[in-house]
Amino acid sequence: MRNRIVILLIISVFIIASCAESMKSISYHDNSTNDAWKITSLFSERSVGRCTSIAKDNQDGIYISYYNESGAIELASKSVKSNWTNEKIREINWISSSSSIVIDNQNSIHMVYSVFQTTSCHLCYSYKPYGGNWSDSLIENGGETGKFGGIVTIAIDKYCGVHVGYINLGNGEVKYAYKPQNGSWTKIILDSVNNKNSYLDLAVDNDAGVHMAYLDGTTGWLKYAYKAYNGMWNKTYADNSTNCGLWPSIAIDKDNGVHISHYDQTHCNLRYTYKPNGGAWTSTTADPAYAVGGYTSIGVDNNNGVHISYYDYTQKNLKYAYQPSGGIWSNETVDSNGNVGSWSSLVVDSQNNIHISYFDEGNYDLKYASSKIHMIVYETTLVSIPILMIAIFFIVLERTRRIRKK
């Protein structure tokens, strides 16, 4: 009799395990409650917050680079459990048009930013090793009349090589700079596309390949360049079906699929362009509302869900778009308190939580939004696990009773 009971229990465990294997994980963002987003004004007493860029370290600490109107590049940071702190990285005494920050796999901090002077613009780089001190250098010196920088972007590969994309504002050339770990900078002209508005972004994939999205100012189309690790650059149009490519942001998913958000100038809305690894480009409208899609920033979570922060030009609000893998787009307003949402920058942490830095134009303030209800749920094609376990328990109990009677 005991052997029969043991066999029944083994069969029950096997059924539960089989059902667990049939489950699949999905991510979602629930905006049905008022606490879906936590909004914070970081330094409301000071004129700060333009040119924001956000990044995370390997413990999900958050770092935001930004411009202080007094003439300095600064950094705000917090760990998962600590409060915000800020520090001045470099006194530039002039104007910065953008900044970009990234944290490498050793938790060292890398920043790139442009510095405008009276007749020129310089591309600058600051670096802080984990536990060390800041050091500054010039990537490209504008001299008396050269203008290098504009919207700048930085990424780090798995070998801690530093990749920077930027613009020659004088003639619209797209430029690329690279520095291997402990090495020196090399610079090339990547493309001559009359991109004087300096719209571009850059990302690195799991294999240290480099991907760049940028506006072709001559055609008005979104262009894409790719270079495998130690390979040559290849360029193509990612979207040439409409007048698009403003404010591009690029992200690479875990399967090396390429995701780009950008502004559609023809239809005045948010556009999304995607290419799976080894596949072809497709483009869709991520938000059909009118005059939305400036200052886009894109991120991909662990389940290949796509997240975009962007600016609503009409309502002057910060908006957010989300598309689960294989799903459809949803849109929501994150912050509508005044003229907010320009210079948005988004990062997804290891728990699939969303973090956005952005500028409050009305109050000249750096703001930060984080999602509180972005989580993993489970679904199965059979029945839920708790119900299944209860049912099997009573089946085993009944079978045991019958066996004992015999």
Describe it.
The protein is mainly β. It has two domains: 1-23 and 383-406; 29-379, Neuraminidase (6 Propeller), CATH 2.120.10.70. The protein has helices at residues 2-21, 385-405, and strands spanning 24-29, 37-41, 48-56, 62-68, 72-78, 85-91, 99-103, 109-116, 121-128, 135-140, 148-156, 162-168, 173-179, 186-192, 200-204, 210-216, 221-227, 233-239, 244-252, 258-264, 269-275, 282-287, 292-300, 306-312, 317-323, 330-335, 340-348, 354-360, 365-371, 374-379. Strands 2-29-28-27 form a four-stranded antiparallel beta sheet, with no helix packed on it. A four-stranded antiparallel beta sheet has the order 3-4-5-6, with no helix packed on it. β3 and β4 form a beta hairpin. α1 packs antiparallel against α2 (385-405). The protein starts with a helix and ends with a helix.
Architecture blueprint of SSEs:
Elements (H helix, E strand, L loop, with lengths): L1 H20 L2 E6 L7 E5 L6 E9 L5 E7 L3 E7 L6 E7 L7 E5 L5 E8 L4 E8 L6 E6 L7 E9 L5 E7 L4 E7 L6 E7 L7 E5 L5 E7 L4 E7 L5 E7 L4 E9 L5 E7 L4 E7 L6 E6 L4 E9 L5 E7 L4 E7 L6 E6 L4 E9 L5 E7 L4 E7 L2 E6 L5 H21 L1
Query: Helical segment tally?
Result: 2
Please state roughly what percent of the residues sit in beta strands, choosing from under 5%, 5-15%, 15-25%, 25-35%, 35-45% or over 45%: over 45%
- Please state the average pLDDT score: 85
Q: Assign the CATH architecture of the largest domain.
A: 6 Propeller
The CATH superfamily label of the largest domain reads Fucose-specific lectin
* Unreliable residue runs: 5-34, 373-385
CATH class of the largest domain, named Mainly Beta
Sheet/helix structural class: mainly beta
CATH fold node name of the largest domain: Neuraminidase
The largest pleated sheet is described as: 4 strands, antiparallel
How far the N terminus sits from the C terminus, by CA atoms, comes to: 9 Å
Oligomer designation: single chain
- The order of strands across the largest sheet is 2-29-28-27
The domain count comes to 2
Question: How many strands in all?
Answer: 30
